[in-house]
């Protein structure tokens, strides 16, 4: 029965999310710099369109572990285009693009001692 080409329409909105593949920032950055970049993104992102409650849900999901993130995304009705959350839509079709740095840490993060 379950042929590989068939798609369950009901499953369209609930792609399993995952963290992005390992990535490197253009130059090594500290946790403080990463935090500042994230804050600036979340402060300005809603001004580019979309709904505040979706941005809030995306932020909560980006900062949560994967199981909780999945629950947040599902309950907010977010349509996940890329499983790493870099591109999502709301049910009205508004697009939400998240940079990798708000979702995961770069491999060249400087760990303060």
TrEMBL record:
InterPro entries: DC-UbP/UBTD2_N, DC-UbP/UBTD2_N_sf, UBTD1/2. Residues 14-112 form the DC-UbP/UBTD2 N-terminal domain. Residues 1-24 are annotated as: Disordered. Residues 1-15 have a biased composition (Basic and acidic residues). Gene3D superfamilies: Ub domain-containing protein, DC-UbP/UBTD2, N-terminal domain. This is DC-UbP/UBTD2 N-terminal domain-containing protein. The lineage of its organism: Eukaryota, Viridiplantae, Streptophyta, Embryophyta, Tracheophyta.
């Amino acid at each position: 029965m379950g042929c590989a080409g068939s798609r369950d329409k009901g499953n369209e909105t609930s792609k399993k999310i995952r963290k992005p593949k390992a990535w490197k920032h253009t130059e090594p950055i500290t946790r403080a710099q990463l935090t500042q970049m994230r804050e600036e993104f979340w402060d300005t992102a809603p001004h580019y369109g979309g709904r505040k409650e979706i941005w809030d849900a995306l932020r909560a999901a980006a900062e949560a572990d994967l199981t909780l993130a999945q629950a947040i995304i599902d309950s907010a009705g977010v349509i996940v285009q890329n499983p790493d959350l870099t591109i999502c839509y709301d049910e009205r079709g508004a697009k939400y693009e998240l940079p990798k740095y708000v979702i995961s840490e770069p491999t060249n993060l400087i760990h303060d001692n």
